[in-house]
Each structure stands twice: as structure tokens, then as C-alpha cells.
Design brief:
It is a single chain. This protein is mostly beta strands. It has 4 domains: about 140 residues, Immunoglobulin-like (Sandwich); about 110 residues, Sandwich (Immunoglobulin-like); about 100 residues, Sandwich (Immunoglobulin-like); about 170 residues, Immunoglobulin-like (Sandwich), CATH 2.60.40. The protein is built from 5 helices and 42 strands. The strands form 10 sheets. Strands 20, 22, 23, 26, 27 and 28 form a 6-stranded mixed β-sheet that branches. Strands 30, 31, 34, 40, 41 and 42 form a 6-stranded mixed β-sheet that branches. Strands 2, 4, 7, 8 and 9 form a 5-stranded mixed β-sheet that branches. A hairpin with a 2-residue loop joins strand 22 and strand 23. It starts with a helix and ends with a helix.
Length: about 600
Amino acid sequence: MWIRGFVGLLIAIVVLSSFQMPLNSKSTIAEHRPIIRWPTNDTLEKYATIYAEPDVINNPYIEPEQNVTITIESRPPYKIESSNEQYQPAAMVNVTNVLWDGTEWYSETDGTIWHKNASGYAAPWYYRESDYKVKVVIWARNGEGGDYNFQPGSRITWWVTVSNCTYDADAGAWVTHYLESARYTFEIGGAWPYKPPETDLFNKNLDASYSPATPNIGDDVEIYIETQPDVPVKIQGASIEGRVEYPNGKSEDIYLGFEPGEGAWPSRNASTRITEYYHTMPDTKCTFRIIAWDPFYHKIYSDWYEYVVSRNGTWKYPSNFTQNIVIKSDPQNVTTTKNPVVDIGREVNITITSMFPDVTIKVAYIYYTITNTWHNVPLKGKNQMIKIKSTECYFVIPGQPQGVNVTFYIRAWDLNNTPITSKNYTYSVKTLPSSVGKTRAIFYIGVIDCKRNTTLPFINITILNESWQCFTQTDYTGYTYPNVTGSKYTPYYLTVGEKYTIIVYLDNNTTVYFSYLLTRDQSGNETLYESVINHTGKPLRVRVFREGNTITCYLNAPKDPPEYARIVQFPDISVGIPMIGTVCILIPIAYYYNLRRKKAEEEEKRVTV
């Protein structure tokens, strides 16, 4: 009987226990989750601590390659949980950004919020360290070596969303509750820190200058840029674009690149030049602006700059030489007295100086005419004067033999290529008195290359006999005469009736020897020497021909003698008026040679016919 009662009690206990199981089970599961939930209309910061590495909350600036790790640590009893981790993560980061130029990229407006928490691959939304602590990451690049997720220069806005769960007994289900943090912003560096929509971006990022502000003709204009002291970004490149307008109505565009001041890009400074090529005329106007870009090719543009080429450096009085230039000479009397006379062989130094320090003599030439007392065909030429400085030039007229007249004038150009011309200046070389009678005479020696159709200057020549010799050299006209060795402009009159040996040195290894019997009457003509010699390994036909008192050594001479090629004689300065006998040199003119050559060519044609 008691056994039945015991069994019945067990059955009753089991039945009662079976009815209590759902309630006990529900109570046990509910104890896993906090009954207290955070309000959905509150901010996360009331229930959790948020911090970042690097600290973009308090120092809102990072370099382009830096990842940002954000840690969320909730305060108990608020665990960070979700009822469905696969589709509703317990924590995630939300990111939007505005590009350097102000363009929205990731945006709440179009729903393109960035949430990715892995470097380009499927990965968890967050990284859990405990029930109360998780981390999310804002990745700099999309995978290792991939593209930037956010371009340098972007303005980033971010916030985190975190959830916890409570059990709804009435619904018999777990409910997820979400809270969002406040919005935080930071800048990604690497680009110009001053950017749109700010104004005056160029001057805030860079300092620019150019010099000179008002260039003269022929000046270069140097343009220099440098990052401002508070700008941590270097210049990746720069250029200028502009236009040059000339006073003659013409114009041209200019595009010039900069050179990095640190030797390579990127650089904190750079420079370029608008060269003198564009500054050849006064009143030329140049307008330009500077374009510079950072390492991520964000371009900034300067204001337009303008300068005008100065009239400095041009003649103050364009038509008057003496109002612009002072001319001086040494000896002084050449330019200060009437009919000046200089010593035999005396060099004449001509110096010109601009009267205005800001007026440059770009170039100057001296034009000269040399004549003598026995022939009216002048020797003319010009030489560029040597520049001492921008406002001063000089030229040395070589010393001349006696009886020569030199006339010269100077033409100078300013930086605008405007010429002005001086008046003519003339001086004569002193003539020495002579006691030469019938026992003394002089002759002249010249060297002509028939193949090149030119006289040969600076040929060494020796004239000698048993009791006397001199060493001389043909001058720049190709002629010389017996003179006092060491003073080639002083003639030496030789004794009539003696035979003289003349040696012409064509080079160190080739010489021409011939003799000449000096007579009082040097009229007529004769061939003194004719032969084919070896010169630099090649045959050279040489003929020495006398015509009056002039002996000419012809190189590459024609085979047939120029029967009708008459050489214009030098005057017989040992006969007639004693003063004429003192003349020491004729300034040989190419006219003589051309005349002889033309007659020789005519004779060759006549003989051929």
C-alpha cells in the first residue's frame, strides 16, 4: 500500500516537474543577457568609451598610409552583442569622405557609406577582445599595395554603430538595440592643406616671387616658389603659362616648367626663368600665372602677374652719338685736336663709355680707312670693339708706318638694337726726314697665294748681305720692306749696287731663297726665281717676280709667266724729291693683287685661244 503511495508521489513530482521546465528554461537563458538595454535614442558615449590609434579624435590629421584602429569599450552591464552576427554585426564603422576639391565621394546622401573592416577581402565587421570590448579599422588602402580607400587630401567623417541584446519574454525572442556614436572628422595628409572651398589657395600654400620686377632689355626674369612654413607638403611639380605682347603688335604664348630646388621632385622650392629671348624690346608686356601641384596632383593656381620691359638700356637721345657716348683716345690728341699726328708704330687706343649707367652698349664696331701718301686706293675694314663692361668698350688700332693716314668712326647699338654713329676722326703717322741720295734705295716684298687669291700676312722673311741683315714679317696686308730689326715700322735704306739674299719662310720646313741686285733705277720687271718645291708633302709651284720696286712671291703660280700682268709699282723713294725717299711702307691693297690676277687670267685665256 505504501509502495503504491510512494510511486504515486514520484509520478506527481515528475508531472509537476515537467510542467515547470519551460519556465525554468526561459529564466535560465534570460540570465545570459542583460535585462537592461541602452536607449535607442541616446548616444553611445554615455555607455561606452571610444578611442582611436592614431588619435584622430583629438588630433584630426593622419598621413596617407596610416590605418586608423578604433576601440569601443562598453561599461557593464551593457555587453556588445547582436542576435544575428551574420547580418546584423554587433559593431561596425561608418565612413564618408569629401575629396580635396570638395567633391563628395562616400556619402550618406546616396547611401554609399564605407563600412569595410578588412583590407580588401571578406572579413569580420569588427574584432572582439571581450564581451565589452571590440575594435574596428578604417583601412588606408584596398588590400596590400592596392588603391587608396580615401584619397590623400580627403576630409573623413566617421562614427561607429554598436548593439546589445535583451530577451522579450512576451515575444519569446531576442531583440537587438543599436546606438551610434557622435560624428568625428579628420584630414588625410599628403596634399595641400589649404583647399577648396577656401579662397586664395595658392598664396596660403606657397610663397611666390619674381625678379627683377621691371626687367631691362636682355635681362632674364627668375620666378621662385616655396612652400609656406606651416605647409608640410612638398611641391611635386610646377609650370607657368602666359603671354608676351611686343610693342610691334606681335605676341606669343609661353609655357615653361620649373626646376626643383632640392635636385629632384618633390621639393620644397623650385624656380624657372623667362629668358632674355622674350625681352628684346622695351615696353614688351609679359603676363603669366603659376600652376603648382602636390604629390597627388592637386593643382593650385596663382593670380596673374604682369611686368613691362623697361626702356632702361636704350639710348636717351637716339639720333645723337655725343649725347649718349663719351669717346676718348690714347694718345689723347687723336680725338681732341685738329689734324693730329702720332709717332711711327704708335698704337692708338679708342675707348667709348655710355654717359648713363643704365644704358648698355650692346655691341660697338670701329670702321676704318687707311691711306698713304703715294696711292689713293684706301684699305677699308671694321673690327668689333672689346667690351670692358656693359657701358664701356675699347679697341686698339695697331701701330702704322710713316706717312699713313687713318680715318675711323664708331657705330654702337643699345639693347634695343638701335644704332648711333660717331663723326669721322682722322690722324696721320709722322714722316721722318731723309738724307737718302742716289746711293741708297728701298724695295718691298709681298707673298700671294694664287690658289686662294689672297695675300699672306705674318710670313717671316730674312733680308741680308755680307755686311747686314734684318728679320721681318709681312703685315696684315701681306707685304714688308727692309727695316730696322726690332722696329719694323722704321725703314732701312739699302746700299745701291749690292746683291741681297732674301729668304721667305713658308713654314718651319719650307723656305724660298733668291737674290736681288739692288740698282738705283728699279724700273722694269724680271723673274727672280721659279721652281716647284716640296711643301707639306705636295708639290708647290713658286715664282718670284719683280715689277719696279715691288718683289712678289707667288705661291701656286700659273705655269706660263703673266706677260701682261703688270704690278702697280711702289714709288722710287730714292729718286726725286728727298721727302718721298723717306716713305717706308705702302699699305698694300687687295686692289693691286686683283688687278694682276685679272690680267694674268686674261693672258691665260689669250694664250689658250
